[in-house]
Write a structure and sequence with these properties.
Length: 161
Amino acid sequence: MRRAKETGAEGHPQLFVYNIGSKKLYAVSDNCGNGMCFAGAGRLVYVETDRDHHTPLTTGQIVEVLLDESSEQLERTPQVDVIPGATAFIQPTEDGLVFTTLPRSFPVKSAKQNVDRPPGLYHFTRANGGVTAMAESSGPVFMPSPDGKRILYVKVTPRTC
């Protein structure tokens, strides 16, 4: 990922993939979030924002891209709606994706309202497009076991006074 600079602006995140073998550079996104991973041979999954870089990143989606050498344009398939700034970690599974994020709500809550809410751990299944909550109040990162049968994560327990 690279941050592009503009005159008078902080810049915005742009996502690129470089194929080491073919030396081909793919310009993937002009408005991406931080969550991204490879989901298989020639498949990239990343968070795309719904808004351009001049507005807050309040809504977006996880998108899968086919990195096809012969294609003029990258084939993009939306997977699941997310809050881009809260979707920092994504990992592929046999049947979909596991990721951390804050659940989207409508009307959208302000960043101030969401600041004290920890993300949750979710599983997206490609076959039916379903999303299942695996753990509420998890930390932003997790680690799948090498065999893909377990997930290590940190549970965040709110302080009680």
